[in-house]
Design brief:
- The protein is mainly α.
- It is built from seven helices and no strands.
- α1 packs antiparallel against α2.
- The chain is rod-shaped, with a radius of gyration of 41 Å.
- The relative contact order is 0.06.
Length: about 190
């Protein structure tokens, strides 16, 4: 072959290679653009996660504050109940020292009030139970001639005798769990 033909073939190869190279660069540019888009999307996603985490931390702090406030309310209610118990015990001792024409308070009333305070300490997460049990104790104190607790809550004691749990009794009778426990404790003390 002559040297001129080899030079022409090499020139043709160089021209073909020159046309192919820009096409490879054009193919690489969309890939580079895709990588940039993914990076920006990931940065945006990380910023959203950080904002969500900040909101979650703030909500947890609010819930902690609410729990602390609820705990303080429960402590103040417990102190109020203790004060009332002390007053009841004091009034009981003064009534036993008083003349006999005053209507006597039943001897189990102090025990019932103590059971009320014990129940409140054991289950202090429900303010409604405290007020419901307090009203029940006040009603029991105000009735001079009362019927047995087992007579008033016959259905509850029938379920308890059948071996039902406190939760099952509460669900079936519609009475709160703490109140069911209180009634069972009061019945035990009434029997003894």
């Amino acid at each position: 072959m002559s040297p001129w033909i080899i030079i022409v073939i090499l020139g043709a190869c160089a021209i073909a290679y020159a046309f192919i190279m820009p096409k490879k660069n054009k193919v690489q540019e969309p890939g580079h653009h895709l990588v940039q888009e993914m990076e920006s999307t990931l940065e945006h996603y990380m910023a959203e996660i950080e904002n969500d985490n900040d909101a979650l931390i703030q909500r947890v702090a609010e819930m902690k504050g609410e729990a602390t406030a609820a705990d303080q309310r429960m402590q103040s209610q417990l102190q109020e109940l203790q004060r009332r118990l002390d007053q009841l015990e004091e009034s009981k001792t003064t009534q036993t020292d008083a003349p006999s024409n005053i209507i006597p308070v039943h001897s189990s009333s102090g025990l019932q009030a103590q059971a009320l305070v014990d129940s409140v300490r054991a289950d202090s997460d429900s303010a409604q139970q405290v007020s419901g049990a307090e009203e029940q104790a006040a009603e029991q104190e105000s009735k001079p001639a009362r019927e047995s607790i087992k007579d008033r809550y016959a259905e509850l004691f029938n379920l308890y005798a059948e071996g039902k749990s406190v939760d099952a009794i509460a669900k079936q009778t519609g009475i709160q769990r703490g109140e069911v426990q209180l009634i069972l404790q009061l019945a035990e003390r009434e029997e003894s």
